[in-house]
Design brief:
Elements lengths: L1 E2 L2 E2 L13 E5 L6 H9 L10 E2 L2 E2 L5 H7 L1 E5 L10 H8 L12 H7 L1 H5 L10 H14 L4 E5 L7 H13 L6 E5 L3 H7 L2 E6 L2 E7 H4 L3 H8 L2
Helix pairs in contact: 3-6
Length: 225
């Protein structure tokens, strides 16, 4: 995958089983967000393919991929600022695929009590943390099979970071594949069974989170921590 002459992603190959949580980490600019955007259909792929449930969705638009069950949360984007919280959630609702329990207003409001309290507020009247919650709530209302989370805790106050972390953990066992990009390593390490470490547009290391989180040499080399 390239932007002009700049090769953003190269030789990236990953797979995820149903209900798996995969963390994608690395320094800024190594291609983490680009990878999620490519999976969601928001960035063009010059070669290779994206497959969902064994079928190629490479030629599908972002809207068509969303209808097939791929949902992405990008920072504070993904909400309609002029609509209320309730309207934002309702307009995103889609019927679930398969037999798992549907995500509906009741479940989303139970997961995000703040949104329930502000259900009549416009999107642009919410704080940054509340907008992030609304973006995640909208994604869940689409009843996704794959949820792509790009820096869900970035720039948030500690109280919102903790709330978002708890929400992410609560999604485990819900039948959703989650790919999580976040600079907040405790959130990634606590939620994800597998880690992918990216470097210069490719995958440098992939392995078990329990092992890699204690690899000080790897953390210093690829993350500077």
């Amino acid at each position: 995958m390239a932007y002009g002459k700049f090769l953003a992603l190269s030789e990236v190959k990953l797979s995820a089983d149903a209900s798996s949580f995969v963390g994608i980490i690395g320094r800024n600019g190594v291609g983490k967000t680009t990878l999620l955007r490519a999976i969601a259909g928001l960035a063009p792929i010059s070669r290779g393919e994206v497959r969902l449930a064994g079928e190629s969705i490479t030629q599908l638009s972002a809207v068509a991929r969303a209808r097939r069950g791929v949902s992405i949360v990008l920072d504070r984007k993904g909400i309609f600022p002029s609509l209320s919280v309730l309207e934002n959630l309702t307009i995103a609702a889609r019927a679930p695929r398969g037999a798992r329990a549907a995500w509906n207003l009741e479940r989303v409001f139970a997961l995000f009590p703040r949104l329930n309290e502000r259900r009549k507020n416009r999107g642009d009247a919410l704080s940054g943390g509340e907008q992030r919650m609304l973006s995640m709530g909208r994604a869940l209302m689409t009843n996704p099979d794959v949820l792509l989370l790009d820096e869900p805790t970035e720039g948030l106050a500690p109280q919102f970071v903790e709330e978002i972390r708890k929400v992410i953990l609560s999604l485990k066992g819900q039948g959703i594949v989650v790919l999580l990009v976040d600079q907040n390593l405790p959130t990634v390490f606590g939620a994800c069974e597998r880690l992918i470490v990216m470097h210069r547009g490719g995958i440098a290391i992939e392995g078990n989170t329990g092992e890699l989180r204690h690899d000080r040499e790897m953390l210093e080399r690829h993350l500077g921590v």
